[in-house]
Amino acid sequence: MNTHPRKIQNVISLTQQERYDYFLRKTADSMTLWGLFNEGWATTKGKLVSIPFWPEERFAQICATDEWRDLAPKRIEIETFMKNWIPGMERDNRTCLIFPTPEGKGLIKAPRALLFDLKSEMSQYE
Q1: Which of 29, 53, 94, 109 is deepest in the core (most CB within 10 A)?
Q2: pLDDT over threshold 60, residue 1
Q3: Is residue 90 scored above 90 in pLDDT?
Q4: Are 23 and 113 spatial neighbours (Cβ–Cβ below 8 Å)?
């Protein structure tokens, strides 16, 4: 979790779309993504329930405030995410909240759209 503070600020300052692109690159590169967990995963309530995901542990950690203050970053392997999470989220009518910031801004994606984008990004690494 030794991410340079300037890097954190620079990445957090990106637009939602730029953070989404960063998320795709980092997740495809590391083959992992991160959520917040403690006896259950972090969620947000809106029209639909969204589950937030981050590309790196440190970005998840800085969002563990307010209603998520008792949660901690937890790694999710990309294979598990694609095989189990995506179908489960579709079945449960959940959306993906990609890379929210402490101010709460994140990009909402349908699970299937995120899967398509992740596979597309990962194909560049083959």
Answers
A1: 53
A2: no
A3: yes
A4: no
Please report where in the chains the tokens 């953070």 appear, as a residue.
19
Taking alpha carbons only, the member of 99, 16, 111, 93 closest to residue 60 is 99
Q: How far is CA 72 from CA 12, 38, 59, 91, 120, in A?
A: 19, 7, 11, 26, 29
C-beta of residue 73 within 8 angstroms of C-beta of residue 64: yes
pLDDT, one tens digit per residue, over 71-85 is 999 999 999 999 999
Q: Do residues 53 and 35 lie in contact, with contact meaning Cβ atoms separated by under 8 Å?
A: yes
Measured distance CA(110)–CA(7) in Å, rounded: 28
Tokens, residue 114: 């995120």
Q: Is the pLDDT of residue 28 over 90?
A: yes
Find out whether 75 and 120 touch, Cβ atoms under 8 Å. Answer: no
CA distance 120 to 58: 25
